Amino acid sequence: MPHPPIIVPNIGKGEELKLYQTSLACYDIAQEIATKEPETIIIVTPHGPMFSDAISISDGEDISGDFRRFQCFDIKVDVKLDMEFNEVLLKLSQDEQVPVVSVDRELLRAYGRPFELDHGTLVPLYFVNKYYQNYKLVHITYAPLSDRMLYKFGMLLQQVAQNLNRKSILIASGDLSHKLSTSGPYAYSPYGEQFDRQFLAKLSSSQPLDIFELDCEMIEEAAECGLRSTKILMGALDGKEIKGEVLAYQSPFGVGYGVVKFNEVGVGTKALKYIGRREQGMTEVLPKGSNPYVRLARKCLEDYFTQTKTMIAKEELPEIMVAHRHGVFVSLKKDGQLRGCIGTIFPTTDCVASEIIRNAIAAATEDPRFIPVRFEELKQIQISVDVLMTPTSASIEELDPKRYGVIVSKGMRKGVLLPNLEGVESVDDQLAIACQKAGINPDGDFDIEKFEVIRYKEGER
Length: 461
Hints:
- By secondary structure, the chain is of the alpha+beta class.
- It folds into 2 domains: 5-275, 3-Layer(aba) Sandwich (Protocatechuate 4,5-dioxygenase, Chain B); 280-457, Hypothetical protein ph0010, domain 1 (Glycoprotein, Type 4 Pilin).
- 33% of the residues lie in helices and 22% in strands.
- It contains 14 helices and 17 strands.
- Strands 5-2-6-1-7 form a 5-stranded mixed beta sheet, with helices on both faces. The protein has a 4-stranded antiparallel beta sheet with strand order 11-10-12-17, with helices on both faces.
- Residues 288-461 form the AMMECR1 domain.
- One of its GO terms (molecular function) is ferrous iron binding.
- It comes from Turicibacter bilis.
- InterPro entries: AMMECR1 (IPR023473), AMMECR1_dom_sf (IPR036071), AMMECR1_domain (IPR002733), AMMECR1_N (IPR027485), AmmeMemoSam_A (IPR027623), Xdiol_dOase_suB (IPR004183).
- This is AmmeMemoRadiSam system protein A.
């Protein structure tokens, strides 16, 4: 279920009518929940107290929340927490080595945060409470963990409900892309529409677990907040054959809002062993079998974290790495997700090898989008190195997103997009994304340059 506060009439003040289909779908879901009379409602939200390395579970006798931050002061939700469910879930998670943390008033006070329901929980409960209130709540905030860990946590939710014989409903709260229009909360990206379309198509197909194979860069650029909630939901449905039905999808404010219902239609496959195969491949670091470009990037990171100066004799490296100067991009991914990327269009050091060392360390420690990489993460990180050829001026007709990267510039603003990226199928897409990165109007005038790259990945010679 989505969670736009504007869908609540007291907040939308007429604007909620633009989400009429979404609202009807949410009411339909709420009415169906009421007919099932669950003892426990589990909500997985992106907007509660989030930790980078552990899923948080709100713990206590009760919890409440309201919409005052949205200038609505007459709606409040008070609900009892299912303490028994929480206790068993915390113990089972510990036994299964799934990182979770119990979050109570005292802990959040230490972080200067209130113990309350977030809007990712309040909006779904606004609809549910219209028809049904005789339940206890399990309030969960996901963490940016691996696909396998999120799925496994969902499996534990199923196991706890079965162990306690608890009649339960799970709501995966989340919105889709926030980059669907120039009037939305984020700068427009063509990746946004692609993500929403592919995500909903996979959920309503016979293979909903295909959401685990969505392109990582598309996910990163889409700026969504519902994928991880849904991955946990998939884990909670492990072993069941399910059919997803998209009840509504709208995006009048530049954000995608989707309502999807899942019905159990039979016995399915225990799928944990298939989840995270892409991630597992990324954690198998094969430095001796990799090319010297990524081997150098990994070695300099290991040396950086162990405070060892990278000492590599030039004769140990291919001549092309020490005799030539090129711009270099170093990309780090963890669990299939971007973890850092820093690059130079033009060379800033004496050779390609030095450029790799400089940009590898910068990607791990200076990318403003991420907290710095920790030494313990290195074994889980996959490194790629792009060596850029000299850019040349180009017209739109000369571009090819599969072969050429693109640089757009206007005044001091400059945006770069590497070539051959999944999801970038047209020149228009390529230019729109590059302009979005630079803050340039894609419909205005700007200069274009094209360049080729040689891409090196770990495990490739």
